[in-house]
């Protein structure tokens, strides 16, 4: 009886023996083992087991999966079938590693993840490719962890706790010993740090480093979003203290080093709720009939000196983060809203691009350098738009941002705004003709009460006043990049790069928009851009606008920062950089520093150093963008919680094998109807038709169909909306 038990135990250890042997050899690649050493690693010592190991080693060597280096000794060559890549986890517990050497991603089953998490840079071993099957692999080493801190909810047991992680791409919870729980209570949302993952443990061991609050509370959820992406909520005391000690006065000594443009008419145009004003425009008529246009940017680099704790903090953040109810700034308030903000009726240090433009908006001359300026007025976009539309100098009370209500604008500013609007339209027209793509995507915004509760939804669209500012910022960014490119010998610089769109995604977009009666011409680059612009114009104001805008943006490559210029596809510029927003973007600070460095006649900066800084800035931009998107989704779920009994008309925005996504037309909130909740039939996903089809009734719910839905469940913690399907619009409105 005992012998039988022992045999079973040994048999368990030898289950899937070939994999266990190759695992040992792979994890010790380049080192040879005999059968005794492998038996010891497997924890078996009986003759039968050793015999099995000896046979299996011979078989694996015959199949050339391992190498017999000398009699009775075997190994796996270091480097053979080993690759590095980034792990992309699915929500179903397995992952894929993107490897440059392979056309398709390598699938990693959950047992082969070997403690790696989503986003980690890993080394993998790829099993021999099987015909008609996706290549599979196993993670053999974690090269770099993308994250070691995670947000989740603490579930207390008697003497320990588990943290259940919010991120759906996390396949395990964290075990926390009692002495590492700190002040956290059962049910708290917490930040847990990876401490260790012992070999035989089912879960990683963690330490709770921060209590975020109770799930579902507004501040808890907003801080959770920031913590999830490793974004800071506030500045360290020593950084605030350093910033507060900076001399922010305007001195005659510094003015003498700069071009003095305080006497030139200047003004800012920004969102009405803006607190930091990065940029101002100046306007002056020249004797030859041309216009002198100044694009004046806050001279952040004057205050933000390299190798200080303030500069290190700004670099680490790399960007301001714009959440639905707050801004998490890149710089402390004394700079972002104070010294660097181009507020009206204040002298400021600026870094400027000054252009001479003829009546057709052609650049006849240009100058770049440090300046001192004085903003004569501040306008909200709505006020500038009113001037453009009415050509009058009276700003009515309902759009005025002044406390004293309606007011009159100086006629010289009205003249400047109208002339700049005319020039901007000419410049935009040339850009469009050259192949730029016009993304005027509708932005969803929320009216919030004093408690940050959403009481309404509105849509922000880009009008002439927005486009006026955009056009001159684009001009400055483009011309600064062109100026550096023209330097000889070649100089290291930071470019904003945007590659051509993905052909497969364009083909998919063509199929989707065909459902709405639109078409795309994918013959060549010019056809693609002109038909994309035509499509984006055609869908404006239609039910499918937001869906088509979103899908069109997804076909585009992601813009990034780099020292190797490839041009900017979306803007149709050969050279482009970011010069105009140094209060909120660190790459712009670096561009100012490099531009000044070269204006002073210095040699080229280190490409390697700036390449690394570009990579970091791009990574942080992506994290900030994800956090912003999550905060909007959170607020949409919060808004819909109060509308559970209402019926909404929506558009089917996505179809998968587990559910239908619907976007509500009146507020752009998106939720999902699970296929298992469609009780009138058994629905199956048809990839070919972008639809789900009832097995018996043949009833079809297809991408782009208008349907009526109700809120079934609004989960604030998971930021997820579940809808109940009421039916197709055509059926309900019969």
TrEMBL record:
Catalytic activity, EC: 3.1.13.1
Gene from which this protein is expressed: rnr
Keyword Lipid biosynthesis tagged: no
Molecular function terms from GO: exoribonuclease II activity
Family: Belongs to the RNR ribonuclease family. RNase R subfamily.
Gene3D superfamilies linked: Nucleic acid-binding proteins
Protein name: Ribonuclease R
Function: 3'-5' exoribonuclease that releases 5'-nucleoside monophosphates and is involved in maturation of structured RNAs.
InterPro entries: CSD, CSD2, NA-bd_OB-fold, RNase_B_OB_dom, RNase_II/R, RNase_II/R_CS, RNase_II/RNase_R, RNase_R
One Pfam family linked to the record: CSD2
PROSITE patterns noted in UniProt: RIBONUCLEASE_II, S1
Catalytic activity: Exonucleolytic cleavage in the 3'- to 5'-direction to yield nucleoside 5'-phosphates
KW Ribosomal protein (keyword) present: no
Subcellular location(s) per record: Cytoplasm
Signal peptide: none
Residue ranges annotated for the S1 motif domain, each copy included: 645-726
EC class of the enzyme, as a word: hydrolase
Keywords from the UniProt entry: Cytoplasm, Exonuclease, Hydrolase, Nuclease, RNA-binding
